[in-house]
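Let us work through a complete example step by step.
Step 1: write down the sequence.
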Amino acid sequence: MADSSADTAAPIIPDDFLAILRCVNYDHPRDDGVLRIEGAMLRCAVCGYRYEVDDGIPNMLWDDAIPPDASAAAS
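Step 2: predict the structure and record it as tokens.
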């Protein structure tokens, strides 16, 4: 019998913690900066900036935020 817990990956951060986090971009109101899990990062639903998560701890420093066009520039 297969272990069903192995079929679902654990989220990179707990849902209750994600619910209180907001993007640190001052160009939009703080309440609008809802973050979504995108792979191993968090992405702002408003501006598209991404934040790395390391061992369940998001790096919310603005200087380390990854702009939305960074992936296109890296290609």
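Step 3: interpret the result. Confidence is low (pLDDT under 50) at residues 3-7.
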